[in-house]
Structures are given as C-alpha cells and as structure tokens.
Amino acid sequence: FEATPHLYIGVPGEKSVKQAGREVIKRRCFYLELPLSQEQAGIVADALVEMMGIREAIVADREIRVTYDLLEATAEQVERTLLKTGARLGNGWKEQLRRSLVHYREDCETANLEVADRGRHSHH
Questions:
Q1: What is the CA radius of gyration of the chain?
Q2: Which residue, among 11, 4, 7, has the nearest Cα to 23 in the 3D structure?
C-alpha cells in the first residue's frame, strides 16, 4: 500500500483499480532447492492459501504453483511465506535472476496501474 497508495484509494473524482473491482491474476511457479515431505507440503500449502489474494497453491515435488491477484499479493510476499514455512527456494544464479525479474515486472505493472493525480491539485 505504501509504495502505490493510489492503486487502492484512487484520487478525488476517479476510482482506483481496486475500487473498480479489477483483478490482476498471476500464475507463478516457484522452484525449491529440495522436495518437501508430504507433511511439509501441507504446511506450505496451508500457509499460502491463508494469504490475502492467493487463489490456489499446488505443491508438487520441487515446484509450487501459485495463482494470485497481484493487487492483493506479490511474488515477493509468496517467497517470504515460503521461507517462513521452511521451504528453501532454489538458489542458483538463474533462479535468483528469474525471481528478481518477476519482482521488477510486478513493481512496474502495479505502478502503471496506479491512478495518477495528473496535475489536478497543482500548487500555484
């Protein structure tokens, strides 16, 4: 919210994307360093679906497939939840680069969706 407040609250006379009821559905695959046990997989899946904005979480072997609304959750938040549950994300340079690019693209996309003030309240 702090980074892009007008995405949620809009500006006078114009609704925000969120107020207009829009969703931005994303499907991402997160790769783990090691497969999870059945018990760990259940813990991870439960933690993910408890997050705001998560529509679906499927844990299979070393992959976690998550569907979420970008206006309510980000890949970075999903990753933090995975780490809190003990899931270890893949650590190779390719995987780190891929995740960084996803973070950057999501930041750009939410910034572009934000309702801009467009100079309505210019100071004289």
A1: 17
A2: 7
Task: Report how far residue 52's alpha carbon sits from residue 75's, in angstroms, rounded to the nearest whole number.
Answer: 12
How far from the centroid of its chain's Cα atoms is residue 89's Cα?
Answer: 16
Q: At what angle do helices 75-84 and 38-49 cross, to 10 degrees?
A: 140
CA distance 87 to 62: 10
Mean pLDDT of the chain: 83
DSSP H helical segments within the chain, as ranges?
6-9, 38-49, 75-84, 93-113
pLDDT tens for 30-46 read 999 999 999 999 999 99
Looking at 31-92, list the stretches that DSSP marks H as alpha helix, in order from N- to C-terminal side.
38-49, 75-84
Long-range CB contacts for residues 51-54, cutoff 8 Å, separation at least 24: 51/77, 51/78, 51/81, 54/78
55 bridge partner residues? none
